[in-house]
Design brief:
Layout (H helix, E strand, L loop, with lengths): L1 H12 L2 H40 L11 H4 L5 E10 L2 E10 L18 E4 L1 H9 L10 E5 L11 E6 L9 E3 L14 H27 L3 H13 L4 H37 L15 H22 L1 H5 L1 H5 L15 H16 L7 H37 L3 H12 L1 H29 L8 E7 L5 H8 L4 E9 L13 E4 L2 H7 L2 E3 L7 E5 L13 E7 L5 E7 L4 E5 L12 E3 L9 E2 L4 E7 L3 H11 L6 E2 L4 H39 L1 H9 L4 H38 L10 H19 L10 H4 L2
Parallel strand pairs: 2-5, 3-4, 9-15, 11-14
Antiparallel strand pairs: 1-2, 1-6, 3-5, 7-17, 7-18, 8-9, 8-17, 10-14, 11-15, 12-13, 12-16
Length: about 775
């Protein structure tokens, strides 16, 4: 306890320089803790949103597995529809009460009756701007959904009151609330990707940054601790004195950082981020996160402080006489070697086509490799810097370069404390590129046309005609499968497209040899041919009309072929599908087995077509091929959070550079003064300072770019996507690395002062 009190007294009474160092340590710790709090708050925000989503879920909707068991106690019907509105999902819950009143979901005073609609505040604003949107929400708006019933303030959500006969495809409703959210904000597998990336982008540089803050003014502090050791203080007591100073700064910084996070959370939650908003209460840190910030960061400072004072406690005379430091040991390469071995192995597997299939093993091994490589970068830089400095110093004839390299050879870790944060930033940027590439493989429809698919048994014949006449619909067709006996051991069937040649030509960019009234096989170039579709084979199609009458028509696979290709995201039909003219079936009869109605429009008309379909029947389930509204929202959220991570990484990297560079300038004043008194010009001293920082930084950045691209490629190989090598992102990464070098060089120039103070040479 005496050593801790001594450390606090030295902290307050050892001069202005020490107080400035304490201020730098505190500010640095506050920035680091604020960034750490942001990262720790993200899972809580997502969990709070999913909890509200689960609380409003109908217990039975759209044929959920337990619907049959709930039928006896149900007093209503519910039908969920999720549609894209641009790149956002629009959720509509159709409800109808058939018995005693049902408790309303959170956010509603009561369930809407037939012809009544409750909407979210943002949807209310859009209804005033887009009148066509009201087709999706038939009825009169009677109120707004409060915050308790919304995942986030900008959510597009509505409850639509209906009559029971309008919800034939719905499920039995007894109450609201489910164990989990049907459409979570971020899927668990995607959330793992987010955690993995943020750990590399933020947490690894953050640990380095907090360690840098805890070791400010290391040289002068070691000399002071060595003096205390020579005066009779024990070795452990010397370490405790140093640790007390660092812990005090870290603890004060943690409190200030948490206060800064509270302000940031209140402001950003109200303004929102692109595609992602939350309520301020969702961003409140849980107890475990507060414990990590208030205890974990000071504990790290305590550990770093004790380790930093080990040399002064063990050999105080060497510290007081400024003995030459021991060269860094090769054990610093230990994490880098296995990490590189793992990523190289995955890269070779991807290049040879032996992509790993055990995703559970890769899910553990890949993050481990990323952490090992990142840690190895930090620990191996002093070794590589010393080797480079020795080689260049022996070969150069330049005074400035020689002085810079000899200094780096004697103190290889000094300049790299300044550069480590920037090196890790470039490494993390490459890794983030890989995550964004994988996410971009699941994106919105980029084709010039949009396909809409609806189950034919949900579309009466009268509504079918109305749907095909919706403004913006270019063409339509019916796709069906031939009949197969239930329980049959041999499952053979063919796919059929029921359309005229005119309909087909309006749907496809290539249709050759089509003759009206004659069946033919559709041949799609580059697609696998359906082996069941052989000329002469006959397949039955079961038909039914609006009155319930059934017929069976056998269709023989013709020899005639049609060259076919459409512009949809995925080809609408498979190669070998049979084109059947509508005249081949009896009038009024349509296929009843796995049949779908397909509409086609331009990609620019998606919103108007969906509104037109809703005008015919708002409860029809429409599948927009190539557009998954829930997935698009998740990707938007992930990209936004990754951007937040990169911004935090940039803040941490720049802060680490500024704090360490300022501290190093103060520590180097005696050496700079000595060189100036010996006749060195300010221009030479500035060149020495720039070379000391730029050369080891350049080596570290080259290593970061190489290892980062390898880690990115190995991540893409294990991600299961189609893209393994991101050559397009390399110029951006190299430009970023060059920018980092320029910023570091410019930042090193002002560190050589104009005033020469000889007193610094003999001052402790």
């Amino acid at each position: 306890m005496k050593e801790i009190l001594l450390g606090l007294r030295l902290l307050l009474g050892s001069g202005r320089g020490n107080r400035v160092r304490f201020l730098l340590m505190t500010v640095g710790s506050a920035i680091g803790v604020c960034c750490l709090a942001v990262v720790l708050a993200i899972p809580g925000i997502l969990a709070a949103q999913d909890a509200r989503k689960a609380a409003r879920e109908p217990d039975c909707s759209n044929g959920r597995g337990s619907c049959a068991s709930m039928a006896k106690r149900a007093h209503g019907l519910a039908l969920t529809r999720l549609d894209p509105y641009g790149s956002e999902p629009l959720t509509r819950i159709f409800v109808a009460q058939t018995g005693p009143p049902i408790a309303p979901p959170p956010g509603l005073p009561e369930l809407p009756g037939p012809g009544e609609v409750f909407v979210s505040p943002r949807l209310h604003e859009l209804l005033n701007k887009d009148p066509g949107l009201s087709r999706l929400l038939p009825g009169n708006e009677v109120g707004l959904i409060s915050a308790e019933g919304l995942a986030q303030p900008d959510e597009l959500y509505a409850y639509v009151g209906s009559r029971p006969e309008e919800l034939k495809g719905g499920g039995h409703l007894s109450e609201f609330g489910w164990k989990y959210a049907r459409f979570p904000t971020v899927e668990p597998s995607t959330l793992d990707i987010l955690r993995f990336t943020l750990a590399g982008v933020v947490l690894l540089p953050l640990a380095v940054f907090l360690s840098v803050c805890a070791r400010l003014s290391a040289a002068s502090r070691m000399r002071r601790l060595a003096a205390l050791r020579l005066l009779g203080l024990s070795a452990k007591g010397t370490q405790r004195v140093n640790a007390a100073e660092t812990v005090a700064a870290a603890l004060l910084g943690a409190v200030l950082g948490l206060g800064a996070y509270w302000v940031v959370n209140q402001l950003v939650a109200r303004m929102g981020l692109p595609g992602f908003k939350w309520y301020p209460a969702d961003g409140a840190l849980p107890g475990t996160a507060l414990l990590v910030c208030l205890v974990g960061c000071p504990a790290l400072a305590w550990f770093v402080g004790r380790v930093g004072a080990k040399k002064a406690a063990a050999n105080p005379l060497a510290v007081r006489r400024s003995a030459v430091e021991k060269p860094p040991r090769l054990w610093g390469l230990l994490p880098l070697v296995p990490g590189l071995g793992i990523v190289i192995g995955y890269c070779v597997a991807g290049a040879t086509g032996n992509v790993p299939t055990d995703t559970s093993f890769s899910a553990i091994l890949m993050p481990l490799a990323v952490v090992l490589v990142g840690t190895g970068l930090v620990l191996s830089l002093p070794i590589l810097s010393r080797a480079l400095a020795r080689t260049v110093a022996r070969a150069t004839s330049s005074l400035s370069l020689g002085l810079a390299m000899r200094r780096n050879e004697v103190e290889p870790g000094g300049a790299l404390r300044v550069a480590t944060g920037l090196v890790l930033l470039v490494y993390a940027a490459s890794l983030t590129q890989g995550v964004l590439i994988e996410l971009n493989q699941v994106s919105k429809n980029t084709s010039p046309v949009q396909l809409y698919t609806m189950a034919l048994d949900e579309v009466p014949e009268s509504k079918e005609r109305a749907l095909t006449e919706v403004p913006g619909v270019r063409s339509h067709a019916i796709q069906a499968q031939s009949w197969t006996e239930p329980g049959s051991e041999v499952w053979t069937s063919i796919s059929a497209v029921i359309a005229t040649c005119g309909q087909l030509r309006r749907m496809a960019s290539l249709v050759e040899n089509c003759v009206d009234g004659r069946p033919a096989r559709l041949m799609v170039q580059g697609h696998t041919y359906d082996e069941a579709s052989k000329p002469g084979n006959s397949f039955p199609f079961h038909l039914r009309n609006s009155e319930g009458e059934r017929r069976v028509v056998n269709v023989e696979v013709p020899r005639q072929t049609i060259k076919y290709h459409d512009d949809t995201a995925a080809q609408m039909v498979s190669s070998g599908a049979v084109l059947i003219p509508p005249s081949l079936f009896p009038a009024g009869f349509r296929p009843e087995d796995r049949a779908t109605l397909k509409l086609l429009s331009s990609a620019a008309a998606v919103r108007s077509v969906l509104e037109g379909i809703a005008g015919v029947d708002p409860t029809i389930e429409v599948e927009t091929d190539g557009v998954d509204a829930a997935a698009l929202q998740q990707i938007t959220v992930i990209k936004t959070l990754l951007a937040v991570g990169m911004i935090l990484g940039l803040i941490i990297g720049v802060a680490a550079y500024l704090v360490a560079a300022t501290d190093r300038a103060v520590e180097r004043r005696p050496q700079v003064t000595a060189l100036a008194l010996l006749g060195a010009r300010p221009r030479t001293l500035r060149a020495v300072q720039v070379a000391q920082v730029v050369l080891p930084l350049a080596v570290g950045l080259v290593l970061a770019v190489v290892t980062g691209k390898m880690a990115e490629s190995s991540y893409l190989v294990t991600g299961g996507g189609a893209v393994f090598w991101d050559w397009d992102g390399l110029p951006l990464l190299l430009a970023s690395a060059l920018g980092v070098v320029v910023v570091a060089a410019l930042g090193a120039l002002p560190l050589i002062g104009r005033r020469i103070d000889p007193e610094l040479i003999r001052r402790d």
